[in-house]
Design goal:
The chain has 124 residues and is an all-alpha fold. 85% of the residues lie in helices and 0% in strands. Helix 2 runs antiparallel to helix 3. Bound molecules: adenosine-5'-triphosphate. Adenosine-5'-triphosphate binds next to helix 3 and helix 4. GO terms for molecular function: ATP binding; kinase activity; metal ion binding.
Length: 124
């Protein structure tokens, strides 16, 4: 086990995020959705409370996807052959991503509903 400086630990963490973005299509979809949501939130001048909810939802999904990617790598390393426990581990991690994504979708609808209704109601 190598010990490193705080800066090199930070570098490894960034490498991990970059690895997930490069290798996981779902991570790229989540990232693209997050960019769209952040641009929409800025254009609609959302309140800070709505911003906090959105940023929490985005972070939750990203964190779950990163953990899912990490778990997939560990499972493939430990059990490259087919095994019911490997399946259970991967399916459960995928379930965590799914739950977080459903939460983010519902939170997004709740956060954007009123500002969008006001905008459309005022004729744009
Ligand atoms: N070693 C294994 N043993 C049994 N089932 C497995 C194993 N590896 C994968 N699976 C099954 O195949 C599914 C897909 O696994 P895979 O490793 O391809 O992940 P993935 O769907 O590509 O995930 P992602 O899209 O996040 O990359 C798993 O959810 C699991 O049900």
């Amino acid at each position: 086990m190598r010990s490193g400086s705080l800066i090199s630990s930070f570098g490894y963490a960034i490498q991990g995020v970059w690895y997930a973005l490069r290798t996981q299509r779902n991570m790229r979809i989540h990232a693209a959705a997050a960019v769209v949501v952040i641009i929409a939130a800025a254009l609609l001048h959302l309140s800070w409370m709505r911003w906090v909810v959105l940023l929490l939802a985005i972070t939750l999904v990203m964190v779950m996807e990163l953990m899912n990617t990490a778990l997939e790598s560990v499972v493939d390393l430990a059990s490259p052959e087919i095994h019911p426990l490997a399946k259970a581990a991967k399916d459960t991690a995928a379930g965590a991503v799914l739950l977080a994504s459903v939460f983010a979708l519902v939170a997004g609808i709740i956060v954007f509903y009123r500002p969008l209704a006001d905008l459309l109601g005022s004729g744009g």
